[in-house]
Each structure stands twice: as structure tokens, then as C-alpha cells.
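Exercise 7. Given the components listed, write out the predicted structure of the assembled complex. Treat all entries as one system.
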Amino acid sequence: MKAKKAAIEARGVSRVFAAKGQQAVAALDDVSVTINENEFFTLLGPSGCGKTTLLRLIAGFDFPTSGQILLYGEDIAVLPPFKRPVNTVFQNYALFPHMTVAQNIGFGLEMLGKPRTEIDARVSEMLALVRMEELASRKTSQISGGQQQRVALARALAPKPKVLLLDEPLSALDYKLRKDMQIELKRLQHETGITFIFVTHDQEEALTMSDRIAVMSKGKILQVGSPHDIYDRPAVRFVANFIGETNFLKGIVRPSGKVKLAAGAEIEAVAPEGAKLSGEVTVVIRPEHALLVKPTQGKLKGVVDNIVYFGTDTHFHVLLDDGSEFMVRQQNSGGAAADFAKGDKVGVQIAAGTARILKD
Amino acid sequence: MVDVKAQPGFKTMALICLVLLYSPILILIVFAFNSGDIIMRWEGVSLHWFGVAFTNPEFQNAAWNTLRISAVATIASTLFATLAAIGMTRIKPWPGMKTAFMVINLPLMVPEIITAVATLSFFALLAQVLGLNFGIGNIMLAHIVFCIPFAFMPIRARLEDMDLTLENAAADLYATPWNAFKRITLPLLVPGIASGAALAFIVSFDDFTITQLVAGPGQTTLPLYIWDQTRRPMTPEINAISAILLLVSVLFITISFLIARSRK
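Answer.
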């Protein structure tokens, strides 16, 4: 594997908002992260976590209180936005309403002082890339939301930015269109080879599209990793809880390294680097990594408290012996359908290597 | 919510109000088309008095003065108002901004006669101390000043409604602040500016009180001319001139309204 080149590097970046008479709020608190060239990198987190602030700092609409932002090694933290070779796709698209689709796409190149012939050629190329050739001379108010989205993308890609920033660009689209655009975005990223930094609060979107994800909360990055890392190997409670559904179990680490759960069983659990391996810990187990079995076969024992049918799968809520709730997701693959009913005594089996100890 | 229109007597009340408001104006216009010499005795339909008005050199002179003053006042006040509106919406809030906003809008609240007397005193002082008198320029200066708040309001409203991310987007696409203003903010602000200019024109065009005090000999404007005529034996010429004035006012208010609505 060839060495990855850093496109964007944030070093100890903080952004503190201080209003008169109010306590200062750190929207970003000493954030450091490296985003590689040609990467589809996602900043994921709930609203107010600082993901949009970080994006605005990279774009230049806001400036850090402290820290550095490097673009290919050069500190750009104090440059105004028009001097940064970085373009943005805005949440509301921010298309210029008094210009045509083609004029919108050509705007960046025009501002860079490119000759007319080059602009025209590049605009045609971009129109083809986002499949909007027929609508080139339309006003932006005369096209649909999905089409506006494509124009916004084409406009941001036209000047060949070193990094493309996308601020929740799919949130205004309906479900079907959003799915299409997710695939479209991946295609565009692949075809252009540009580094994409994508901001979203939608964990499914983050998992399906990203090469790597940074999960953020309260102005800090909690974990950076591939979708697999984030989903299968969450390091802290917030990450485990925010992405997908999960079971949290209390336990005590034994000298053997195994974890004695409060619910009774003693299980093997993987510990991430930096996790404490003594005393009380929290173990996470994804609902699909557990299986309902007869009481005699399972390590954990309990009673089926509730069954929720989802079509593709069924969720069994099991009340464990210690009173905690545990959810098991079973796929409805026909054949050996789990025939457990509410009130049944059941055992819960956990797939080897899937239980994980959290750092906090 | 109670639908007012469903209340008994609503239509009657509305009708009475409209009649009270508009019948005097309507009567004024109707008698502009009177062919007789006496103002309120109807003798037949004619455009005679419009002809008299248009060929009257005093009317021509007054109309020319009015147009010059209004044109200068409109252009200058709209320019100042645009700059003020940008300063109040597009740069970081600065200390004293609220006060500045109040000061700009103060002329709307100060009784016009006060402004008129103050303006008169100001020009008198200017003449006495510095020996300065700009002639019709005095009226123009006075009009520029009191037109600013009228031009300011729609421009500022338009700027406040405008999506700031558009300007961010322009900056993101390598537009310098000047280019972003020229290519994005200004074109989108045109309806606000047009609307503000139309309002400023109207206010200047039919101003009486301030002009009356500031105007020197030979600086008669249309409203002053009409006022003078009413103190002599009146002919329907006065109705014809009033009708013309009204038409211009209505025209500009309509333009201002249409522009404001169409670009919402």
C-alpha cells in the first residue's frame, strides 16, 4: 500500500464563541484530524457537535480561535475563502438565482480569470458529468430540488478544487432521491479523484458512503475510522450509541481477562487500545451479533418481553436475569424462523469476538 | 380567528370609508375635465384646462423645477440609503449601529414642519455666516436629506431577506469581496433599490412644507404652484394640474409596489 498523502490536516483547532455577558462556548475543542488525498471523509455527529463549524473553518467562512489548518502542508487558517482552492456544496445549495445553470457552473472559473473558451468547455464537461446538458440555459428557480443539487455539485467541482466540502447536501431531498444522489456522489468522487469532506448527521449515509468517518460530539472528535471500525469496533459509549442500535452491559473484568457480566454470564470481550482492563466496565454487543436459543444453550438467560416485527427482520427485547434489557435482531430469512413468543424463557448466544469493552 | 369579513355591517363600513377617502379626489379629477370657467359648475366634458395648464409658462417652470429637484434627490438619497443599508447589514455589528439606525429613520417621526423650520434656519445660518446660497441647490439638499429614510427602508429590508450563503458561495468560488458585491449582492438588490428610489421620488415630488420654507423667489415647484393658485380666483386649471400630479404619484407608487412584489 502506498503512503497516503494528507490533503487537510487540522492541528489543535479550537473555535470559541464568546458573547458579551454569556459564558464562552467552544464549538470546537482542540480538534486534530488528518484527511487523506482522494478520500471520502465524513464528519458525523448530532446537530451542535461542531461538524459544520469545522467545515466552515476549512472553507474560510470562519476562523479558528487557535490551532492550524493545513492544506497540503500549507497553513490556510487565516486565508479568506476566495484565496483557498477549496469549494463547498451548501446545504441549501446557494445557487445564484439571477443566473442560468451554465452561468452558475462557470462562476468560479470566471472569478479565477480563465479565458471564455476554457470556461465554456469546462462548463459543458461538468454539465455532462452531472447529466444536466439540456438544462444549461434554465434559471435555477426553474429546476427541481434534485437538479439544483446537481448544479451545486457541478458548480463546486468546476474549478477543480483540491478539496470539496459538502455540508449536509442531501438533507433537503426525499428518500428515493437521496439514495440516488448517494450513489451519484460516490461516482463523482471516484471519477474526479477529488478529496470529499462530507458533513452529515445521518449515520446510515455516513456508513454507506465514506472511506473514513470521524464521529463528533460536543466539539470533539471521539473516533476516526472506516465504517467497519466505527460500527463494529466503537471505542466509546457515544459512538456505539449514535451509530446503529446496541446493547450496553455492565460487567467486571476478571484476572483471566474475561468479563463477568452483571447479568450472570462470563464472556470473552475484545478491548480497544487504551481501555482499562480492571474493575467495572461497559461491554457492547450489537443486536445482530446475538442469537436467541433454548435457555439451556445460551450464556445469558432471560424472558422475551416484547417482539417487534420489521419485515426484513424481527427485534426481540429480552429481559435478562439482572433486570437489564437486551435486544436481539434476527433476520426473517424464512426457513428456520425463530419461533419464540412473548413470555418464553430463552437463552442468548453471543457470536465469538463481537463483544467489546468500551473506553468509558 | 374571527373572520372580519363575516361580521355584520363590514361591507357597509368598508364602503363608507372608501367613499370618504376617495370621493374628494374623484370629484377633483372629474372637474379637471370641465369645459366651463368656474371651478365647481359643470358645463361639459373637455380637455381644455389640460391644454391651458400645459401651455402655461408658470406651470412649465414649476414642473421643470420639480423634476430637477426630484431627480437629484432621488438619485442622491438612494445612493446614500444603499450605502447605509449595506453598512448596517453586511459588516460586523459596530457600536452605535442601533443609534445610527434611529438617526437615519428620525425624519420619519419628526413633524415635517419642525424639519422645515430647522432646514430653513440651517440655510439662513449658512447664508449669513459663510455667505453660501446654492439657490435651487438648497431645495435639492433638503430633499436629499429627508428622502434618505424612505429610500433606506426597502433597500435594507431586501438586504436582510437576502440569503447570506449566496455571498459565502461567491467568496467560496474565488470572488473577491468587490466581485461578490458587484456580481451577486448588487444584482439581487436592484428591486430593493428601485423600490426605494420610487418612494424617494414620490416623497420629493409632492413635498410641500419643507419646500415652501426653503424655496426662494423663482423656485416654485408644482405643489407650491398649486398652493399659490388656490389663493386666487380658481379655474379648473388647478384641477387639471392636480390630476397630473396625482397621476405621476400613483404611477410611481404602483411601480414601487409591483417591483417589491414581483421579486419576493
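Discussion: The radius of gyration of chain A is 25 Å. The longest strand of chain A covers residues 6-17.
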